[in-house]
Amino acid sequence: MFTLAKDRTKKGAELRDVMVDSIEQAMELDERVVALEADLGGASRFTNIAKKYPRRFIQCGIAEANMIGVAAGMSSEGYHPFTHTFGPFSTRRVFDQIFLSGAYAHNTINIFGSDPGFCVGINGGTHTTWEDMALMRSIPGAIVCDPADETQMRWIVAEYAKLEGIHYIRANRKDVRNVYEPGSTFEFGKGNLLRDGSDALIIACGQLVSEALDAAEALAEQGVDCSVVDTFCVKPLDEQLVLEQAAGKKLVVTFENHGVIGGLGDAVAATLAEAGAGVKLVRHGVKERFGQVGDPAWLQRDFHLTADDLVNTVKEGLS
Amino acid sequence: MTPEELSELKLLAAKIRRDILVMLEKAGSGHLGGSMSIVELMSVLYGRRLSYDPKNPRWEGRDRVVLSKGHAGPAWYSALAESGFFDREMLLTLNQGGTNLPSHPDRTKTPGVDMTTGSLGQGTSTAAGIATALRMKGSDRRVYLIVGDGELNEGQCWEAFQYIAHYKLNNCVVIIDWNKRQLDGPLEEVINPFDIAEKMRAFGFAVETVDGQDIEALDAALDRAEAVTDSATCVVLDTVKGAGVPFFETYPGNHSVKFFDPACREAADAAIAELNAYIEGSEA
Predict the structure, then answer these.
(1) What is the DSSP string of A79-94?
(2) pLDDT tens, residue by residue, B3-39
(3) What contacts B4, CB < 8 A, 6 or more positions away?
(4) ipTM of the complex model
(5) Torsion (CA) A206, A207, A208, A209 in degrees, nearest 10
(6) Quick one: B33 exposed, middle or buried, by C-beta within 10 A (0-12, 13-18, 19+)?
């Protein structure tokens, strides 16, 4: 059960600290949990795990493919590894290792890809991923999550640590605005209806859920009544909630810090089309573009991923 | 090694070699060359060195094996069948739909297979992970990592070797099958690995090169490799691709042999008959 944050303007802790704290809590509960880094321990603060659990932190150096393989090998011996590097190097660079040494071999790896999409900031185009969820969704049995805030991240990490299989979580390293009250709980494969409206349905994931709620409030002031659904679990998608909420709406808009190919938008498109929902869909995401440098706020504007951009998309879609 | 022990290992090698030929001929094609070059290694591992329980393949007290050159699966399957992990009859199902013996090893299907391999290079890292895990558990068991020489083209091998050497994972015995040929031709013509032993030394390994078809020498080299305590350890096996059957040792397409070629069938049949005679003679 979840409760919406009383103050949505307030930011939580930095998500990298939340990740480290969550992994340490999982380590305390379960001796099978270990953490692996690819020389970004300063950036992820995984070095703090090394201080608290020196024997259960494994520095793999700048060798991401090897890190995923080491994690897979440890899994075959009963361990539950968490790995970290930046989003593109956690997925695109090591896709075959995740796919074969991990998923195909029935191993367990919890993969944290940090700073997806516009969160990349000054690390720029080489470090940007708009396709990590597309890749990870294509792996049979994988769970793919894009948490909205720190509360959701804590819940996901705690649950991932208990499960077997390939699990991906993408998130900003920095702090993001709260969507949920601490202690809220969730369910993989279940979306959260955050606002019930009658005209359009906005389906969002990740830190853009906050922007989606902002957009819905702005639209309400202009007489447009929107539902907002948080699908933090992009795979498996809560198809039932998508279809229930799409029914009777004039428009569905997906909103993600990701490319329109293979991410939330495509997942929702397939769900609506296969059910013959017959409702207009706009996939609001990044189209046919690479990343670039800039501060995250500038990048978010340049890639048209702000609440204002979403407001415009909904209004155009309804016109 | 006593003369009796040597005879036993030679007998096991003959059985493994025969089984490889029988199963590949039955399947119609397969990775013959790189399977044959590691027959003596498999005999030494399963006949003498490894701790295992065929009735309990995931027994915690076992030594682990990762065949990173996964295409040599038939050699492993033969060794596992001859060691009692499953019936020899199962060998005849190689590569058939629904089989538990796929061309490349699958830990979810085959008893005794500790790691899924086939995408070259990846077994080096998973073996490194197993070695890390064994050390973390305080286990004194080893993981035997078998790597192909052509496989060394893969960058991931060198990432894993760095890691194994850095952490001095001497519980991971790295064994390189230097059989001189890869699919498209001799190593030097495809991508020259230069001096493999020197490269491994430069990466921080204690390295020894040994005749990989000589059972006694190979076993003694593994003794010395396993006695290394202050660094990672590696044995380079100087082997012949297609070893044991002169026709296949020189056959240009010996990486993956297609048995619709009558010459291949004749060579295999003759070798099987010869090996059977040797096996019967030894067991009499």
Answers:
(1) -EEEEEEEHHHHTTTT
(2) 999 999 999 999 999 999 999 999 999 999 999 999 9
(3) none
(4) 0.97
(5) 80
(6) buried
**Residue that the structure tokens 């993408």 belong to:** A170
Decide if A100 and B108 are in contact by the 8 Å CB cutoff.
no
- The beta-carbon neighbor of B133 closest among A66, A68, A77 is A77
Residue type, A76: S
- Domains of chain A, first to last: 15-171 (3.40.50.970), 192-318 (3.40.50.920)
- pLDDT category at B215 given cuts 50, 70, 90 is very high
Neighbouring C-beta atoms of residue B3, cutoff 10 Å = 7
Alpha carbon B116 to its chain centroid, in Å, reads 14
How many angstroms separate the CA atoms of A186 and A179, rounded?
Answer: 13
Q: Which domain holds residue B187?
A: 3-283
The stretches of chain A forming alpha helices (DSSP H) are 15-29, 41-44, 46-52, 64-76, 87-90, 95-96, 132-137, 150-160, 208-221, 239-246, 264-274, 296-302, 307-318
Q: How far apart are CA A230 and CA A220, in angstroms?
A: 18
Contacts of A67 in chain B (CB under 8 A): 125
Q: Do B128 and A63 touch (CB under 8 A)?
A: no
Which residues of chain A make contact with B115, given a CB cutoff of 8 A?
73, 76, 105
A68 contacts in chain B (CB < 8 Å)? 125
Tokens of B149: 């020489």
Q: Looking at beta carbons, which residues of chain A come within 8 Å of B125?
A: 65-70, 72-73, 97, 101
Per-residue pLDDT at B284:
84
Task: Give the pLDDT score at A42.
Answer: 96
User: Where residue B200 sits, what CATH number does that domain have?
Assistant: 3.40.50.970
Give me the helices (H) in chain B, please: 3-27, 33-36, 39-44, 73-82, 122-137, 155-166, 187-190, 196-202, 215-226, 246-250, 262-283
Q: In this complex, do A74 and B106 lie within 8 Å of one another by their Cβ atoms?
A: no
Q: What confidence tier does A10 reach under pLDDT thresholds 50, 70, 90?
A: very high
Number of domains in chain B: 1
Instruction: Answer left, alpha or beta for residue B156, where phi above 0 means left and psi between -120 and 50 means alpha.
Output: alpha
Q: Which tokens belong to B218? A: 């190979």
* Contact assignment for B128 to A97 by CB distance below 8 Å: no
Exposed e or buried b per residue across A46-70, where buried means at least 16 C-beta atoms within 10 angstroms of its C-beta: bebbbeebeebbbbbeebbbbbbbb
Asked whether the predicted pLDDT for residue A73 surpasses 90, the reply is yes
Distance CA A244, CA A239 (A): 9
Alpha-carbon span A189 to A194, nearest angstrom: 16
> Token digits for A17?
């600290």
Chain segment B76-123, per-residue pLDDT in tens: 999 999 999 999 999 999 999 999 999 999 999 999 999 999 999 999
Residues of A noted as catalytic: 64
Give the pair of three-digit tokens for residue B235.
């044995």
The DSSP call for residue A131 is S
> Does the CB of A104 have a partner CB in chain B at under 8 Å?
yes
